[in-house]
Amino acid sequence: MLDTAADLKRKLRRSEPHEYLASKTLGMIFERPSTRTRISFEVAMTQLGGHAQFLPVDTMQFARSEPVRDAARVMSRYLDGLIYRGEFDTLLELAKYASIPVISAAAKGSGTNHPCQTLADLQTIREKKNSFGGIKLALCWVSANPSVDYRKPPTLVYDYVFACPKLGIELILAYPDGYDPFPNRIMEKAKREAQQSGTPIKIVHDLEEAASGADVIHCKNWVRVGFPDEDQPPHFLNPEKYKKWIIDEALLGLAKPDVIVMNALPAYRGYEITENVIEGPNSVVFDEAENRLHAQKAILTLVMGSN
Fold it and tell me: CA of 257: how far to CAs of 126, 213, 215, in Å?
């Protein structure tokens, strides 16, 4: 997929035709807000010669009383592929009953993940560092803006703990005590797979320790496992305790001089990352955002193409 993404990116830059999905239609269901995911998938289908159809969930019988399994089979008769952002259990049911490819556009629930973002992140790392071997990546929990939705699931973390070891990337997870991103069984499985690959995962509870000697720093806010939606997370109840969990210039000074800084966006400046860092020479956040388009074009081409 990464090789295909790089090839499609080159073709676009050179204005070479690559309409591999001519006459194909992609359905898009979003039960939660989206900016980059929706726009990039729509543009991707247009550039590949196909069509993306946005399906507002509140206008569909899908959101009322129609069983998911029925909707999945009906949509399979009209569409060539489907992307879905919503509950993980619904995603699995769509995939079970649909006869077309179903792509996760960020799931929420017991299997929370965001594989399309992760693929774009990996594409960005390979572009900037040329390879994955020997890369030290610090995936860091950061504080959040209390004026926005703070109940963020640990989406990227789920994908990173399984993807990085397979690619030879040394993954350092940094988060405060009590902010474990998954149930123990998932992390233990990830650690076992990492040991088998020879690239173990390290967990620390100190931001400076994680950033020391890092090639890549990725920042992400999430709530702890089992956190109830109706309550405020600890870092809002005691903001002074967590305000040091931010990516700033002092932290970059501990990393390698050519460290790249990533954030899946939206980035809450002054909470997750400082203005100077996100606008500074080490930031690749907008290259990372662009690569959502190219990575998703690769996914669509490989799962919906005729060959």
Answer: 17, 9, 8
CATH topology of domain 115-288: Rossmann fold (3.40.50)
Q: pTM for the full model?
A: 0.93
- Taking the CA atoms of residue 26, residue 125, residue 159 and residue 62 in that order, the dihedral angle to the nearest 10 degrees is -20
Backbone angles phi, psi at 292, to 5 degrees: -55, -40
| Residue whose structure tokens are 């009953």 | 97
pLDDT tens column, 79-106:
999 999 988 899 999 999 999 999 999 8
For the chain, give every residue range classified as CATH 3.40.50.1370.
Answer: 2-112+290-304, 115-288
DSSP of 254-304, one letter per residue?
TS-TT-EEE--S---BTTTB-HHHHTSTTB-HHHHHHHHHHHHHHHHHHHH
Amino acid at 79: L
Which tokens hold the place of 71? 């909707």
Report the topology of domain 2-112+290-304: Rossmann fold (3.40.50)
For residue 240, report the phi and psi dihedrals to the nearest 5 degrees: -60, -35
